[in-house]
Amino acid sequence: MTTTGTRADYALVDALEDHLGWLLTHGYSHATVRVRRFELRNLAGFLAEFGIFDVGEVSFSAIESYQRNQYHHRKADGTPLSFRTQSHRLVAVKLLFSWLVRQGQLGFDPAAAIELPKVERRLPEATLSAEEAEAVLAGPDVTTPLGLRDRAMLEVFYSSALRRSELIGLRLADIDGARGTVFVRQGKGAKDRYVPIGERAVAWARRYVHEVRPKLAKYPDAGVLFLSASGEALCAEWLTRTVRAYVKAGAPAKKGSCHLFRHSAATLMLDGGADVRYVAEYLGHENLESTKIYTRVSVEKLRAVHQATHPAGR
């Protein structure tokens, strides 16, 4: 929706829906738009409490009040929002009003001067050792069809360090055993990429495809690789719960689910001597800084050097 003049009567709820529609038509993923909708409706609900319903009524002070509200907000368990979450919500707000200015709906940007909070760079809460990873992988009962499927899923997670949504989106032809690659469709940033996969994971995936998947698939077959018991694509929440249960059983000292395999694979590769640039490509990181966080977790070589050279380490 584009006009040549500003509109004081342009309802905020209409503006955010127009903005979300623009994002979809410009290649943003449905997952990104779903999160943005929640974040922007959160803003609209806050402003409505103060009688602000139109974009022309939104001022810098109103958005600054929203920022303070997010800082003081407490979740159901009494904990505050992380600065990362606060920043993410404010970025959505800044992008909305910047877009409105570009579309000619506002003559000035009331969010332009909002300063984002400093975001902490948190280490992954836990990573699996190679032994713990093997214990988790051995958890499914592979004598049952669904247990064999789960073993194949865990093996692919661990071998290729996929994100949860990337594993759910895999199709039958995406694992190329001959080349030892997985084709990731529309990963983060809506970008395709190839990642390596080990022979063992390929073998488990092949066994699942031959022995189990034909029993789960329904007609017409959409070609999704991993199917639920009812023959549908996997539900993200179900996958999280399932993987978390296997982690709890195989490595009770560690907490985590799907992303735990991603953290662990990156850390173990760096421990094994992999160059951080290759690990970044493996994980699909555009910014090397996103990968370097794993070098702070990967301490095995540093510990060995410390023991060999520090007077107090011997």
Question: How would you sum up this structure in a few lines?
Answer:
By secondary structure, this protein is mostly helical. The protein contains 14 helices and three strands.
Structure overview:
It contains 14 helices and 3 strands. Helix 11 (258-271) packs antiparallel against helix 12 (276-283). The chain is globular. Strand 1 (175-176) and strand 2 form a beta hairpin. It has 2 domains: 12-102; 130-305, Intergrase catalytic core (hpI Integrase, Chain A, Orthogonal Bundle), CATH 1.10.443.10. With 314 residues, the chain is mainly alpha-helical. The chain has helices at 12-25, 30-48, 60-72, 83-102, 130-137, 145-160, 164-168, 199-211, 213-216, 236-250, 258-271, 276-283, 288-292, 300-309; strands at 175-176, 181-184, 193-196. The model is unreliable at 1-5 (pLDDT under 50).
Fill in the keyword field for this structure.
mainly alpha, hpI Integrase, Chain A, disordered N terminus, 52% helix, 3 strands, 314 residues, three-stranded antiparallel sheet
Topology:
Blueprint (H helix, E strand, L loop, with lengths): L11 H14 L4 H19 L11 H13 L10 H20 L27 H8 L7 H16 L3 H5 L6 E2 L4 E4 L8 E4 L2 H13 L1 H4 L19 H15 L7 H14 L4 H8 L4 H5 L7 H10 L5
Antiparallel strand pairs: 1-2, 2-3
Helix pairs in contact: 1-2, 2-4, 5-10, 6-8, 6-11, 11-12
